[in-house]
Amino acid sequence: PCAALRGRGAKDGVRSGGPHGRARLTWERVAALRADFAAGVRFAELGRRYGISPTQARRLALGENWKVAA
């Protein structure tokens, strides 16, 4: 973990999500996934489209992960 990231929204000094260099998704792709879900695409198909598991697709689609700050 990188000590420079501590206190900047990084858990244990490791970035996650869009800013992370190995992240599979960006905020734009999460928004697209949520739009696809709203259009009736199933979690398994979302997972295939976005290169993630169906469980992760469900969490993203329902707003359990990648929450927008209120």
Structural account:
This protein has 70 residues and is mainly alpha-helical. Helix content is 40%, strand content 0%. The chain has helices at 27-38, 43-50, 54-61. Helix 2 (43-50) crosses helix 3. It is globular, with a radius of gyration of 13 Å. The chain starts with 26 loop residues before the first helix and ends in a 9-residue tail after the last helix. The model is unreliable at 1-8 (pLDDT under 50).
Q: Strands, helices and their partners?
A:
Elements: H1 27-38, H2 43-50, H3 54-61
Q: From the alpha carbons, calculate the radius of gyration and give it in angstroms.
A: 13 Å
What pattern of helices and strands is seen along the backbone? HHH
Mean pLDDT reading = 79
What ranges have pLDDT less than 50 throughout 5 or more consecutive residues?
A: 1-8
Q: Give the amount of beta strand, in percent.
A: under 5%
By secondary-structure content and strand pairing, the structural class works out as mainly alpha
Q: What is the global morphology?
A: globular
Total helices: the number is 3
End-to-end separation in angstroms reads 28 Å
The count of β-strands is 0
Characterize the biggest β-sheet.
none
Helix content: 40-55%
